[in-house]
Amino acid sequence: MLVEFQDVCVHLHERPVLHDLTLRVSEARVGVIGSNGSGKSTLARLLNGLVRPSRGTVRVDGYDTVQQTREVRRRVGFVFQNPDHQIVLPIVSEDLAFGLKNQGVPRSEHASRVQQVLADMGIEHLAERSALGLSGGEKQLVALAAVLVMRPQLLVFDEPTTLLDLRNRNRLRAILERLEQPVWVVTHDLELLDGYDRVLVLEGGRIVCDAGPREAVQWYRSHCA
Amino acid sequence: MIHSLYVPGASWLHRQPAVVKLGVLMAAGIMLFLLHHPLPLAIAAGLALVLLASARVPLARIWAQTRGLVVLIVALGGVLTLLQGWAATMMVLLRLCALMCLALAVTFTTRSADLIAACERALRPLERRGWANAAKVSLALALALRFMPEIYRRYELIREAQAARGLRAHPVRLIVPLVISVLKSADEIAEAIEARGFPPTRSQDPP
Question: Which of A68, B76, B94, B101 could form a disulfide with B52 if both were Cys (CB 3.0 to 4.6 A apart)?
């Protein structure tokens, strides 16, 4: 899955957030790190058209994220930092079916696809639970399941471990390692990036280091800590 | 503990289609306002209570969902008795109790996805005339069902945080931070909905 940024600038509320970003990424595991306010989440949001570039173009698998947003969103799944904001319907199985309905998947297929993805993640016991009664870790897993059920070809995670305790963090990490799709992870959790193919370090809206995980994390620690 | 409205179960009410339950609720609501004598209203309230009981929802759950309403109804009863006398008050209270039992019987036994689907179906004719967007109205209903308990949870958190700092409960002090917190979340919820492909593409289901 090729992701291309061409001369991308983003201004939010008239404030520049990303500057002149040109990048081609085809690696399967990509990490994005940087200080708070460095533009990491904005970069991630560009990938499925949640943020539109003020200048330049972003293409995912050849599709322009502005002109062909629907095609892009079919391919790119986005997992937010706070699962409370991502779970839209009150019951877990209903929430998972929400994305399928939006994709136009026939209703007769919803139950089997939902069951399948919950079983794959080992959380089938949550199917009929209320979203309100779930723990933070369970909510994050449900939010991920709600994206996986839509069978995206690329997954983007925005600080997925920030609200998790150690056990759930390790559980999520294990699930991330098992995913077949290419994954982009925006994170402050540097250990999460072990074994990644490529890590981008952002500062002040620019990529200041683009390297393997060891080199990039070292650069980040020495320059931004 | 805050619960979602739906209670999984296998009662006969659970098995009825959402559209039928909503239709009966609407018809019963209209009929209740056409009754103007205490006896038929008492019978209607009794029947609604029996209907709610037949949903086999635990009493504790019903109480958790209704205690706020019960307080409101009792307070309303007090005021109305002073203003209009006990006979008129009795009719208003019986009507409200019947409506509450019927509405609870529907929400306790109907999955929100089914309620939303029924609402969408009902709005289709209006959508064809360009008067409504069924998907958007249904999503608004879904969000209300999902986030009302969440807003109550936040209200409790803010109240506790203020109490921990020695502040006594005051409506303005509670509502302002609550509204700000809800508005801040609204942006991210909207993004999440968009990211999951809303508005929907045309379904491959038969119409």
Answer: B101
